[in-house]
Amino acid sequence: MLLHTALRLDVPVDPNSPQAQDWLRNELAKPEYQAARPTWLDVASKTVQDWLFSLFSSPKGAAGTVLLLVVVLLIAALIVGAFVIYGLPRLNRRAASARRALFGSDDTRSADELRRSAADAARAGDWSLAIEEQFRAIAAALDERTLVEVRPGTTATEFAARAARAAPALAAELRQAARTFDEVRYLDRPGSEAGYQQLVALDAELQRVRPAQEAVVA
Predict the structure, then answer these.
(1) Measured between alpha carbons, how far is 29 from 31 in angstroms, rounded to an integer?
(2) What integer is the mean pLDDT of 40-51?
(3) 18/112: higher pLDDT
(4) What SS3 string covers the chain?
(5) Which of its termini does the chain have fewer beta carbons within 10 Å around, N or C?
């Protein structure tokens, strides 16, 4: 019996025979072989690695084109994500100034330019124009400093109310300045040197106000 078994082991096994295939299936069914089988994660990782390798081993130029496309798509996704999370960026100061509408009059002048215009009108004795220009200078200055954002359609009274939120101690002066502006601008009342000087003093006081919060939309 032992001799017969030994003779069987010495005889080469035909891998195509059904018995050899059964032996192979039985051997691979053992726990140690099953434990060594790759998981779905191993297969997925291998697939990704093969894809990356194919990019660098592809014909000249193809890899660079694919990588460039991937980078562009990633950058675009990041930009879209930033817009979704943080919203659209604010207009810069120069662009905002170019589109500023100051109480019914489109004006691209800076606050300093409006102050000089008001001073020129005062020297000429045109107190109504001096008051209008000085009040616009106040609004432009607060807009430039992002204390109050001036938008089209804002009235002088509305602006004064919102500016008072940025400078509560000057709320009464701001309301009076708006009334003075409306009187000479819309009611055709004559301006006065006293009214102009009050606006100049208010402008000087507001220049000492420091931002304590984000811009108040007017």
Answers:
(1) 6
(2) 70
(3) 112
(4) CHHHHHHHHHCCCCCCCHHHHHHHHHHHCCHHHHHCCCCHHHHHHHHHHHHHHHHHHCCCCHHHHHHHHHHHHHHHHHHHHHHHHHCCCCCCHHHHHHCCECCCCECCCCHHHHHHHHHHHHHCCCHHHHHHHHHHHHHHHHHHCCCEECCCCCCHHHHHHHHHHHCHHHHHHHHHHHHHHHHHHCCCCCCCHHHHHHHHHHHHHHCCCCCCCCCEEC
(5) N
Q: Burial level of 176, CB count in 10 A (0-12/13-18/19+)?
A: middle
Rounded CA separation 180/136 (Å): 12
In this prediction, residues 104-128 reach a mean pLDDT of 90
The pLDDT tens digits of the residues spanning 77-98 come to 777 766 655 555 444 444 444 4
Determine what percent of the chain is predicted with pLDDT higher than 70: 55
Beta bridge partners of 130: none
Reading the block at residue 35, the tokens are 């434990």
d(C-alpha 97, C-alpha 192), whole Å: 29
User: CA 140 to CA 149: how far, in whole Å?
Assistant: 9
Q: For residues 82 and 207, which has the higher predicted lDDT (pLDDT)?
A: 207
Place of tokens 């930033």: 82
Distances, alpha carbon 212 to alpha carbons 145, 162, 172, 202, 209, in Å: 12, 14, 19, 19, 9
- 36-47 mean pLDDT: 68
